[in-house]
Amino acid sequence: MRKASLLLMVVLVVVAVWVYWQRANIPPAETIVCADIGKGCLVDGIELRFDHMPQVMKPFHLSVEAANATEFHASFAMQGMDMGLNRYRLLKQANGLWTAEVVLPVCIRGRSDWLMLLEVQTPEGLKRYQLAFRTG
């Protein structure tokens, strides 16, 4: 009994250290300022655009172009409000673009201010970008 308790405590400490180390190594998100997401935005050699102004419960396409990316994920949330799991894996297309079809949920409070977190995996490591936008 005593050995099992000691082993459990060691495992919990190892897991806690691993989780802390993982979180400490996540780079902060760089803010993207974009006047017109339909026309596209450029940051660090990454161009992103929506095919039309996003609206809740209506699909839109997110496309991203970057020369040295190996993986893209985009997640959507609101400041201070949990909007459920809204994480999308972008798929690489034959033309070199990375795309995903996105559907934003309805906010029960009627808010329309969204934050997109774009995570880019490159050979140099993970890069993160945040874009604020409003739904139409």
Provide key terms for this protein.
alpha+beta, Immunoglobulin-like, nine-stranded mixed beta sheet, 1 helix
The shape is globular
| Biggest sheet architecture | 9 strands, mixed
Query: What is the correct CATH architecture?
Result: Sandwich
Order of helices and strands: HEEEEEEEEE
Overall pLDDT confidence: 86
Radius of gyration equals 19 Å
Strand elements, count: 9
CATH class: Mainly Beta
Gap from first CA to last CA:
61 Å
CATH topology-level fold name = Immunoglobulin-like
Counting structural domains, the number is 1
What does this structure look like?
With 136 residues, the chain is of the alpha+beta class. It has one domain (29-134): Sandwich (Immunoglobulin-like). It is 17% helix and 40% strand. The chain has one helix and nine strands. The chain has one helix spanning 2-24, and strands at 30-32, 41-43, 46-50, 60-65, 71-77, 87-92, 98-102, 113-122, 125-134. The longest helix is centred in the first third of the chain and has 23 residues, at 2-24. The relative contact order is 0.21.
Give the SSE layout.
Blueprint: H1 2-24, E1 30-32, E2 41-43, E3 46-50, E4 60-65, E5 71-77, E6 87-92, E7 98-102, E8 113-122, E9 125-134
Parallel strand pairs: 1-9
Antiparallel strand pairs: 2-3, 3-4, 4-7, 5-6, 5-8, 6-7, 8-9
